[in-house]
Amino acid sequence: MKRFALFLLLPLSLAAQAAPFDQVRLDQSRLSFVSKQMAVPVEGQFRRFAVQLAFDPTRPEKAQAAIDIDLASIDAGSKEANEEVVGKNWFNVRQFPTARFVSSGVKPLGGERYEVRGTLTIKGRSREVAAPFSFRPASGQAVFEGGFAIRRLDFGIGEGPWGDTGIVADEVQIKFRIVTGAAKPARKP
Q1: Beta strand spans in the chain (E)
Q2: Domain 20-182 class?
């Protein structure tokens, strides 16, 4: 009898996981980075960003994502570091206040692993990036977690004396954790 009950519940469980996820919960989400200064890892994060996301695990190829990052919201570990990196040699937030990622496609990698491809634009410079991520649905919400590396000099981040990769490494690891709720059902007229 227990097997029969489990068999009846399985389609309900799969249906709950198959719901599209598009209700981003920014208060539970995080966008962070790790750079290396003098070969020592330095962690930081962006405190303000907006995410538009539509993901249906039964049709991942139809997924869409866009992320806008308020570069002035950077937390690089100290007040002095924050003031330096928003300046002209780094992010130049007066001229380029926002970084943007727009997806161009998602492909399954097996299990609950996927890869999103898209264009990342920082300081008016655009590069194609690919980011593997995991998708973990549970109880009407889901967590998308992954990361990728960029070369900061490709985007003009760290110009002048900061262009020396012996002081600050060129490669920066970007990490994201986006928490969403399932799509709200359409209202009937």
Answers
A1: 21-24, 30-37, 40-46, 49-54, 64-70, 74-75, 98-110, 113-122, 125-138, 141-151, 171-182
A2: mainly beta
pLDDT range class, residue 138, cuts 50, 70, 90? confident
Query: Rounded CA gap, 125 and 168, in Å?
Result: 20
* Ramachandran angles phi, psi of 71, nearest 5°: -65, -25
Report yes or no: 53 and 60 within 8 Å, Cβ to Cβ.
Answer: no
Cα dihedral value 172, 93, 162, 46, nearest 10: -30
Nearest residue to 155 (alpha-carbon basis) of 119, 189, 185: 119
Read off the DSSP letter of residue 110: E
Identify residue 17 by its one-letter amino acid code. Answer: Q
pTM: 0.84
Q: Where are the chain's structural domains?
A: 20-182
